[in-house]
Amino acid sequence: MKTVIITGHASGIGNHTIRRLHSENYKLIGIDINIDKSLDKSITQISCDLCNTKELDIIFKNIKCIDIAINCAGVSGIRKSISDLTYNEFLFSFNKIFMPTFNAMQQEIKIMNKNKKISKIINIASSTASMGAKNMVAYSSAKAAIINLTKVSSVEHAPKILINSISPASIDTPMLRKKYKGKLPDFTNMYLTETCGSVSDVYSVINMFIFNDFITGQDIIIDGGYSTSFLLR
After folding, report:
1. Residue 224 has pLDDT above 80, yes or no
2. Is residue 55 within 8 Å of residue 97, measured between CB atoms?
3. CA–CA separation, 59 and 47 (whole Å)
């Protein structure tokens, strides 16, 4: 039975992923600052601030094996223009979006290096990492850093650990619904698919990475065709 660790498992993409993998008979460990009491008792849940490296050191010392790691933890950060964003606000956003993935990966890789078989890490970034959007400098910069972290780490740890990332656009999650006060907007004129994505859409790519042994260092954009469409102004 393979052991899968999922950071940010208590909500959104991470929560859907841990539920889907539970049905596939994996040994599951979820790490999040929150606990989801509705999850099956066979799933190990650990409450931890992924920005706290001392807490992570203690937690990962008790984890003997990781075959697959899926890093979903992060927040929406502070949305301001570069001219209005303060130094401390930028650092706060970067630390809350980038550092949970960086800190988790450091621990995951240490354990995976002991494995005899191929291990895999899948990071959740964002489609905004590869394009410009107003008031997104802190969030987009942190997500772009996750993509580059993925690429550099894949080079450093090939062929033993295959490391990839996924960059979703708008995905129907509690975080997105909170942004729009509970009701999703009309995405007809934004995406070629005329709707935002679902957590199932993201999971389908996670599942592909789990079973594919010939992809590493790649970022897969899931954006409903947004980056394909060019609008003349």
Report:
1. yes
2. no
3. 10
pTM of the predicted protein model? 0.94
Question: Would you tell me how many other CB atoms lie within 10 Å of the CB of residue 199?
Answer: 20
CATH of domain 3-228: 3.40.50.720
Domain boundaries, the chain: 3-228
Contacts of 92 (CB under 8 A, 6+ apart): 77, 78
Kind and range of the H or E element at 105? helix 99-112
The CA angle 60-61-64, to the nearest 5 degrees, is 85
SS3 assignment, position 121: strand
The DSSP letter of residue 171 is B
The encoded tokens of residue 83 equal 């001219």
pLDDT in tens, 44-76: 999 999 999 999 999 999 999 999 999 999 888
Residues comprising the chain, all counted: 233
Q: What is the pLDDT of residues 88-131, one digit of tens each?
A: 999 999 999 999 999 999 999 999 999 999 999 999 999 999 88
Rg (CA), the chain: 17
Sheet of 3-7: strands edge to edge?
Answer: 44-47, 27-32, 3-7, 68-71, 119-124, 161-168, 219-222
Strands 44-47 and 68-71: unpaired
156-159 long-range contacts, Cβ below 8 Å, gap at least 24? 157/109, 157/112, 157/113, 158/216, 158/217, 159/118, 159/216
Q: pLDDT tens digits, residue range 170-182?
A: 888 877 777 777 7
